[in-house]
Each structure stands twice: as C-alpha cells, then as structure tokens.
C-alpha cells in the first residue's frame, strides 16, 4: 500500500507501507516546503493507494505562514601579503522580503586601512551595509584591509632617514691656538 501526500503544486511525497489486517500504523512525514513559497492557505491531499486503485482520499486545510528570520551570513577569508579580504555571503532563509543592516566590528586603526564593497560605511566601531533580500536570495559583500600602503610608507621613511645619515655632510670643527 502506498501513501501519497501533496500540498498545492509545490510539494509531493509518497511512502510505501506494509499493513497487516486490522493493524494500526503511525507514519511520520517531514514536510520541507521550499523557502520561495509565499504565505498562503493550501490543502494537504492524502491518498492511500493499492496498485492503481485509490482506497481513500482525504484533504486537510493547511496554512503556510510567514517566516522571516534574521539574515544569515557566512564568512570566508582570503589572505595575501599584508592584505586580507573578508567576504560575507548574506542570505535570506525566510519566505518574506527582508531589509536589515548587516554589521561587522572593526577597530578605528583597522578601519583606516579598510575599504568596504557595495557602499558599506564605517561608524561607531563597525562597518555597516544596508541589505534588502527577497526569499532565498543571496548577496555578497566584502571588506578589504590592506597594510601595503603603511608598509611602503614605513620603507620610504627608513630610506629617507638612512639616505640622510649616509649623505649628510660631515662637519669638522677645528680649533687652533696661537700665542
């Protein structure tokens, strides 16, 4: 005997079950409805089928509700010489549009050498992005911190001081006494 469950035109599952005569079996189903399905009233259609014959069919009303969790962010890091790029993959796991602010903490010193993608702004110790996502949408933002400019500046200062010390004119003072 086969049990067939359908919800609207977006979910269908079936399970084959062995029944003994006059037995009662409890079956559990996990219904994973796609995130892109908007809130709505629908019907669960349950059919018990043996071979090609429908033994019984029953409809149950169901309401698919609004799910609006906070945005989800996954972080990945790419490092190179004195440069670090952090990429955040921001996603909406709900079935509603979401508009939130995504933030990541950074010190003032780090912010001097950092640049944010997609109009990210630094304020009060954190970088901020305004994110608007539809159901199931994903957006990537990145934060690049590069100390290369600081490194080059320090090397130039060291070269200037070293060059000055090497090429500065020697000053000799001599004193002579005569009677």
Report what the structure shows:
The chain has 179 residues and is mainly β. Helix content is 14%, strand content 47%. It has helices at residues 108-112, 148-167; strands spanning 2-7, 11-16, 40-50, 53-64, 72-80, 83-91, 98-105, 114-116, 121-123, 126-133, 138-146. The protein is rod-shaped and about 140 Å long. The mean pLDDT is 85.
* Broad structural category: mainly beta
Measured on Cα atoms, how large is the radius of gyration?
34 Å
Q: What fraction strand?
A: over 45%
The poorly predicted ranges are: none
* Oligomeric description of these chains: single chain
Q: Provide the residue-averaged pLDDT.
A: 85
Query: How many extended strands?
Result: 11
Q: In order across it, which strands form the biggest sheet?
A: 2-1-3-4
Q: Compute the separation of the termini in Å.
A: 132 Å
The 3D shape can be described as: rod-shaped
Helix content: 10-25%
Instruction: Please summarize the sheet with the most strands.
Output: 4 strands, antiparallel
SSE ordering: EEEEEEEHEEEEH
Number of helices: 2
């Amino acid at each position: 005997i086969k049990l067939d469950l359908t919800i609207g035109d977006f979910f269908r599952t079936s399970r084959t079950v062995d029944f003994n005569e006059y037995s009662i079996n409890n079956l559990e189903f996990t219904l994973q409805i796609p995130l892109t399905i908007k809130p709505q009233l629908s019907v669960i259609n349950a059919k018990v089928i043996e071979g090609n014959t429908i033994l019984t069919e029953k409809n149950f009303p169901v309401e698919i509700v609004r799910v609006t969790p906070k945005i989800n962010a996954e972080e990945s890091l790419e490092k190179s010489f004195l440069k670090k790029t952090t990429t955040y993959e921001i996603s909406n796991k709900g079935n509603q549009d979401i508009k939130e602010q995504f933030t990541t903490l950074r010190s003032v010193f780090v912010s001097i050498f950092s640049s944010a993608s997609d109009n990210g702004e630094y304020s009060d110790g954190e970088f901020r992005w305004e994110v608007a996502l539809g159901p199931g949408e994903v957006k990537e933002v990145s934060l690049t911190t590069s100390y290369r400019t600081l490194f080059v500046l320090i090397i130039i200062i060291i070269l200037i001081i070293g060059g000055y010390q090497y090429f500065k004119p020697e000053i000799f003072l001599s004193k002579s006494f005569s009677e």
